[in-house]
Amino acid sequence: MSRLFLLTNSYPFGKGEDFITAELPFAQEFDPSFTIISTHANGQPLTKEVPEGTQVIALQDGDGKPSLAAYLGLLAKPYVIGELFSLLKKGLFTPARAHAALYFARKSARIEDQIKTLCWDQKEDIILYSYWLYDAALAAARLAKRLRKQGCRVTLLSRAHGFDLYPARNKLHYLPFRRQLFHQEEAVFPCSAKGTQFLQQAYPGQANKIHTSYLGTAPGGMSAAKAPFHLVSCSNLLAVKRLDLLINALKLIDFPLKWTHMGDGELREELGRQTAALPPHIDVCFCGQISNQEVRDFYQSASPSAFINVSSSEGLPVTIMEAASFGLPVIATDVGGNAEGVMDGQSGVLLPAAPSPNEVAEAITRLYKMKEHDYRNTCLASLKLWEEKFDAQSNYKAFYQSIGEIAANKGVWS
């Protein structure tokens, strides 16, 4: 019997990771009593429903910053020493990166210390599945090594998305313990083909372990409408999302337009001040943080005209998949895996990675000026792209079939 343990960041507690919900029915089909380990729950309220029979374990980060003694203790561990020597050997060592490695190892060790005390049955095939290729993945790798010494049969795998995949997204251009992770994982599943290509080139010796596995959403059905023109976006209000760029582009729009943004964050007040300078024919609505079901209800009832994402960095946003499932044309910057979610000139507009406000405004205007027949074909192309790539039913069914094959073959699956 296979026992599945899904390690998340905070899901099903607090905000974020809503997109995991669509995967859970398939996880339950794989293991009716699977376990979710929320590695950074930290006393947050339970905000998402999980399938009946699912066990949820909430971990805590602990109090305050790690002590000097905790850091010194890590320096006695061979895997930490190995990481620091690897930085030295590559000429990448800096005090900041050394601190990042120690801090990362400490966070991972905190997770490992809490989950190693769970009841692990040697008669079961244990599958440790990290949703992010980050601190929980390292904790799972360390735990897997421990459990295997106790005679347990363990399969180790992880997804990879954006911040946990591309070192350039980190201010130090460094993600700790990468080679150790790739050496120990049975499989790593980037959420985009571009992510797969990046990792296979970065770790050619582990390329056979790295396979694209798109996330997915439930069917939406055609709901887009060209008029009145209604532009939507959905993200946290963070600098990387470049909503200031979108606002500057909207200043150049000379036709009536409504812009609705779903999501909240640290830049809410600043962006509100910026939108106050928009011309009167631009109507703006910030919805704040809403649930995934509320997002879907909005698409169904509001019949928006197009979806836009102007981020400077992405993995492959589920928000693009969701919009496409309702037949919305997509405007997106060519960063991360965005190009896999929009066919330029067919299902929407693919902007340069760093577009000007004028280029963004031109893309919006292009959709607005389309003849109804051409607009409808664009909507159909977007919906077809979702059907071919991002249907949750087919994607997650295939993903858990792959997990079963990996567990059965223990590392020889490819």
Could you please describe the fold and organization of this structure?
The protein starts with a strand and ends in a 5-residue tail after the last helix. The mean pLDDT is 94. It is an alpha/beta fold and 414 residues long. Helix 4 crosses helix 5 (135-149) and helix 11 crosses helix 13 (372-389). Helix content is 39%, strand content 15%. The chain has a 6-stranded parallel β-sheet with strand order 3-2-1-4-5-6, with helices on both faces. Strands 9-8-7-10-11-12 form a 6-stranded parallel β-sheet, sandwiched between helices.
Strand content: 15-25%
The major pleated sheet works out as: 6 strands, parallel
Percent of residues in helices: 25-40%
Main sheet: which strands, in order across?
3-2-1-4-5-6
Please state the structural category.
alpha/beta
Distance between the termini: 22 Å
Q: What order do the SSEs take from the amino end to the carboxyl end, as H and E?
A: EHEEHHHEHEHEHEHEHEHEHEEHHH
Question: Which SSEs are present, and which pair or pack?
Answer:
Layout: E1 2-8, H1 24-30, E2 35-38, E3 55-58, H2 68-74, H3 78-89, H4 95-115, E4 125-130, H5 135-149, E5 153-160, H6 178-184, E6 187-190, H7 193-202, E7 230-234, H8 243-250, E8 257-262, H9 268-275, E9 282-288, H10 292-302, E10 306-309, H11 318-325, E11 330-333, E12 348-351, H12 357-368, H13 372-389, H14 392-409
Parallel strand pairs: 1-2, 1-4, 2-3, 4-5, 5-6, 7-8, 7-10, 8-9, 10-11, 11-12
Helix pairs in contact: 3-4, 4-5, 8-12, 11-13
